[in-house]
Amino acid sequence: MQETLAINPKKITLALVSPRQRAHQTFRHLFANTEQPPHIITEDVREWDYGDFEGLKSTEIKELKPTWSIWKDGCPGGESVTEMEARVDSVVAQVRNLHKEYVEGKSETRDVLIVAHGHFNRVLICRWLTFPLVLGTHFNVEPGSVAVLGYNHNSLEEPALNALNLFATIS
């Protein structure tokens, strides 16, 4: 039986890595025993800007604003829901363009690795599936886990969530 990897470095056309320290550490750890794939450190995949709520726990925020929900209200002094959605949509467009190049035979590799953070990843899943951002509350993304976004029927018009909360090692 052939072993398959959730992350196969040889198939990665590009890795987008958040500039935050945890993402750097995760990226370095993933590729500690193999050559790093082509990658860009970019603010595009950073965590949601929590603004005035940076460093506060949800319970502390609820004491200040009892009806607050990041999914509906965004973050005062940080990113609004609309701003977060637009930023993630630009990442989705970039990834889909790379996939289109692969389908058209302009690239030999197709996989895009994104090393980011919890809220960003939940929004990414929603926007990949063309769902409204508010549905991100329904996706539980475990720290250090892998989500696989792809397409039904190998059709770029049918985005799909193929796997969630996988754990991977690269040998």
Describe the fold and architecture.
By secondary structure, the protein is α/β, with parallel strands linked by helices. Helices cover 32% and strands 16% of the residues. The chain has 5 helices and 5 strands; from the N terminus they run E-H-E-H-H-H-E-H-E-E. It has helices at residues 21-30, 58-64, 70-73, 81-103, 118-128, and strands spanning 12-17, 39-41, 111-115, 146-151, 159-166. The strands form 2 sheets. A 3-stranded parallel beta sheet has the order 2-1-3. The protein has a two-stranded antiparallel ribbon with strand order 4-5. The longest helix has 23 residues, at 81-103. The two termini are 17 Å apart. The mean pLDDT is 92.
List its traits.
171 residues, alpha/beta, three-stranded parallel beta sheet, two-stranded antiparallel sheet, 5 helices, globular
Topology:
Elements: E1 12-17, H1 21-30, E2 39-41, H2 58-64, H3 70-73, H4 81-103, E3 111-115, H5 118-128, E4 146-151, E5 159-166
Parallel strand pairs: 1-2, 1-3
Antiparallel strand pairs: 4-5
Summed up, what is this model?
The protein is α/β, with parallel strands linked by helices and 171 residues long. It has helices at residues 21-30, 58-64, 70-73, 81-103, 118-128, and strands at residues 12-17, 39-41, 111-115, 146-151, 159-166.
C-alpha termini separation: 17 Å
Given the helix and strand composition, which structural class is it?
A: alpha/beta
Q: Residue share in helices?
A: 25-40%
Q: What's the tally of helices?
A: 5
What about the largest sheet?
A: 3 strands, parallel
Query: Strand portion, in percent?
Result: 15-25%
**What radius of gyration results from the CA coordinates?**
17 Å
Q: Multimeric state of these chains?
A: single chain
In total, the number of strands is 5
What order do the SSEs take from the amino end to the carboxyl end, as H and E?
Answer: EHEHHHEHEE
Shape: globular
- The residue ranges in which pLDDT falls below 50 over 5 or more consecutive positions are none
Main sheet strand line-up: 2-1-3
- Which whole number gives the mean pLDDT? 92
